[in-house]
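Q: Start with the shorter request: fold the first protein.
A: Done. Sequence, then structure:
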Amino acid sequence: MARPFRHQVDEGILDRAAALFARGGFAKTSVQDVAGAVGLSKAGLLHHFRSKDALHEAVLAQADTLGRQVLAEVGDLPAGAARDVRAVEVLVDVALAHPGMVALLLAPATRPGDEDDRSSATSELVLRAFDVDLATTEPQRVVRVLGALAALAVLTLAAHQQDRTTAWRPHVVATCTDALGHRSPGAARPHPEQAEA
């Protein structure tokens, strides 16, 4: 019985640590910061993870696992609208279950130029789910995907804060799908006089 509880506690620690690492970076996030965020003493946190480096490695491993799961869900689909919609749905579900991990997964994609090679590599898995390579994909597509990912991160975090994850899920998916340029079913058409940006 203790094993599932320990596993849940460890996942909660990893998720909160991921959010802190995404926000402040590894160097600026202390063990005490993570301990305080999860309601443990520093010694209590070190009982779960022997050092800050061990915690960081565990966070990156979990983020990598989630990124690979997302890519596995869509990797067999051809590039296009169906793949994009499925990638959004999978990412939204991951984000609603693991908000901190998604913040870490999406941080390099939504803030290109941040140089944490290990989290950037994991973030590339998410971009590959949308068949995007920042170096070769056309700029409009890159902007649409980064915009959808940024919206996904912000909206799923807001859904958690409002305790509305179930109610907001379809709206988050629709918003991100629209950002990708794929009109969601039932979405209102823009007014003919409304200028497109």
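Q: Next, the second protein, separately.
A: Sequence, then structure:
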Amino acid sequence: MDEDGTRRGSVEPVGDELAELAATTAAEARAYLSTVTEVATGRMDSTALSVLLLAVSQALVTGARLGAVDDVVPARRYEPDAGPDPDVDPVRAGLANVLDGLDDYADVVDPLTNAKLVRGALSDDLASVAADLEHGLRHHERGDISEALWWWQFSYLSSWGLRATAALRVLQSLLAHLRLDVDPETASDAEFDALHP
């Protein structure tokens, strides 16, 4: 497929392997959507960052599978209407609230072609991934397996894979700072307690 999503290549029916990949991707998309929606409610407190790290990591494993297979080319030349775009604004707003003070970060436009630093927001990244996964899920739930796979694969390579990768790096960095940036006295007390139970 081309950068603009134009479909090219040979059209093949969805075989067992691709059907299994679609089912796995759909399950992972549902799990991701469920997790970010739950975190956005603000009920997770101290576990929110760890839960998000796991959800984003798992989504990226699924995306890597999509990126590793040949281009999926559905029978139709144009994508059929999947209905209105998913409304992820409530999730985005909830995540921004949960991540208040931690949401903004410095992002690189493209490490290969444009190393310019721009503002990034973790809540925007997580919501953007959710929107792309849900869009493909709508095709899947209508039984249009090749269309769902095409969308997930194309949007992984052009959009949500990049945003999820950025989010993963920020989440890992946040957890590292929270756990490793402690004052020497606290670290010394913890070490003493560990050595003298």
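Q: Describe the second briefly.
A: The radius of gyration is 20 Å. The CA atoms of residues 139 and 166 lie 26 Å apart.
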